[in-house]
Design goal:
With 483 residues, this protein is an alpha/beta fold. Helix content is 34%, strand content 21%. It is built from 13 helices and 19 strands.
């Protein structure tokens, strides 16, 4: 949304809990970026000062418990700050669903947020959408992975629920057009594309556009909404805490029955299969701008260099490798880690660890990475998240998001030397209790060879000028100890 508003001639201010996460977006220097949190009222006042219109695109569904309480508090704070700032309008993107039926906890919370925002003096445009089809969308990712991974699809009740999907391009057009509304009235509009489909239809339609065989559907009445989240979590990149409320909301038909925004007749919008085709084109041509997983993040998580760790017991595995390649060449290989490139050593072991993580309710490796060679602060990378990236100082730090009894980090720092550089790779683990210590030492026979081979192969790949598939282990200096 931000770059399109800039292209339309608007002055844009973005509020983020961690502004550093926006610094590698190509448009960030054209917008004003401020630090803020909807749960912190003073920061909202600073963010809204001098603004006319505010977009409310905040949601806590990724949290494990109490997301509706946080959403309720955030919406109330936002409403009050908008009144104090004298905003002309709030534009809120919510969820489609009928108020006349008992909604899921997720959809009911989306509607409640709309009512809270509209209860103040600032006019609100609430746009209710169902599944948004576009590269990076959480709903699209679920449909995509279910279609690609499963040649046979079980048919629980939610697969036959009717839905009116809409292309992300049309959603952006409606969001931008809503900023032009100068009336003093609030509106609730429902937005959807021209097709009303079941989730089974959407899976089959995706398979058709993607060139896959038609999926075989097998009725399975015992495949309940209690079992579905765990199964979907195993075969898609979505963590179970997102899948569970999402599946619960899929039990309701979500079709347009009320007023639509002026100029956006569903019959005139992008059809489902065309929206899928465009999304796949962006994925194949590495043009994905944002992803759902980049928003599921804890910006308050401490860094290994923070004072919070000063008295913590840290366990580290340090690898230092000399290289004849330049620091830039080595860092280029470091930036490629994960995704299709893999981890430069024993990728089968990383795959096993990913499956174990999924079985434990974690994110696993299926999130992949947004781009094969470009990384941004705060984005997800398999079961890591980019905590810090500094290309000028040749530093990359990843925070692990797999299920572990403690906090884990994996980082690289490269320093120029005469005739080359030295790579320092550090795996840091802050154990939680006795279980955390037992976990690290139990995996030490695997960690030592994996981390050593990884560092060596990164350097070797830089010297060869290409990411490796299989390279011989070369000599390294390693230090493993408890600090």
């Amino acid at each position: 949304l931000a770059p399109r508003l800039l292209d339309a001639g608007y002055d844009v201010r973005c509020m983020a809990r961690d502004p550093e996460r926006l610094t590698l977006d190509p448009w960030w220097d054209q917008a004003e970026v401020v630090q803020g949190d909807a749960l912190d009222s003073p920061s909202l006042d600073r963010a809204m000062e001098g603004c006319e219109v505010a977009y409310y695109l905040i949601h806590s569904m990724g949290e494990t418990v109490g997301f509706s309480d946080r959403d309720r508090e955030a919406a109330g704070n936002f409403r009050d700050a908008a009144e104090r700032a004298g905003l002309r309008r709030i534009i809120y993107l919510g969820g489609l669903g009928s108020d006349d039926e008992e909604l899921s906890h997720h959809l009911a919370s989306r509607h409640e947020v709309g009512r809270i925002l509209a209860s103040g003096s600032t006019p609100v445009t609430e746009l209710r959408a169902a599944v948004i089809i576009g590269s990076g969308s959480v709903s699209f990712e679920m449909i995509r992975h279910l279609s690609e991974v499963l040649p046979v699809i079980m048919r629980p009740r939610w697969v036959r629920t009717r839905c009116q999907p809409i292309s992300v391009r049309n959603v952006l057009e409606v969001l931008i057009a809503s900023a032009e509304d100068t009336s003093s009235a609030s509106h609730v509009y429902e937005i959807g594309g021209p097709d009303v489909l079941t989730y089974e239809d959407m899976i089959q339609g995706y398979a058709e556009v993607a060139g896959l065989r038609r999926r075989l559907v097998v009725p399975l009445p015992i495949f309940s909404k209690r079992l579905s989240p765990g199964f979907v979590g195993l075969v898609t990149p979505l963590p179970i805490e997102i899948v569970r409320p999402l599946i619960a909301s899929l039990l309701h038909d979500v079709v347009v029955t009320l007023e639509t925004p002026p100029g956006f007749d569903p019959a005139q919008l992008i059809p489902y299969r065309e929206a899928v085709r465009r999304a796949l084109y962006r994925i194949e041509h590495l043009e994905v701008e944002t992803r759902w997983s980049d928003a599921v993040n804890d910006p308050a998580a401490p860094m290994p260099t923070d004072p919070a760790w000063a008295q913590a017991r840290r366990i580290e595995n340090v690898q230092q490798i000399d290289s004849t390649a330049s620091a830039d060449q080595v860092f280029e290989m470091v930036e490629r880690i994960g995704g299709d490139t893999g981890y430069y050593a024993m990728n089968w072991a990383w795959s096993v660890r990913g499956w174990i993580d999924k079985l434990l309710g974690g994110v696993g490796l299926r999130r992949g990475r947004r781009h094969p060679i470009d990384l941004r602060p705060g984005e997800s990378l398999d079961f890591f998240r980019v905590a810090l990236i500094d290309p000028e100082r040749h530093r990359l730090l990843l925070r692990a998001e797999m299920k572990v009894p403690g906090t884990a980090w994996l980082g690289w720092e490269i320093e120029e030397t005469d005739g080359g550089c030295v790579l320092t790779q550090t795996a840091t683990f802050v154990p939680r209790g006795l279980l955390g210590r037992l976990y690290w030492w139990a995996l030490l026979p695997f960690h030592a060879p994996i981390f050593g081979l990884m560092a060596n192969n990164i350097v070797r790949a830089a010297e060869l000028g290409r990411p490796p598939h299989r390279l011989r282990l070369i000599r390294s200096r390693s230090v493993a100890g408890e600090i």
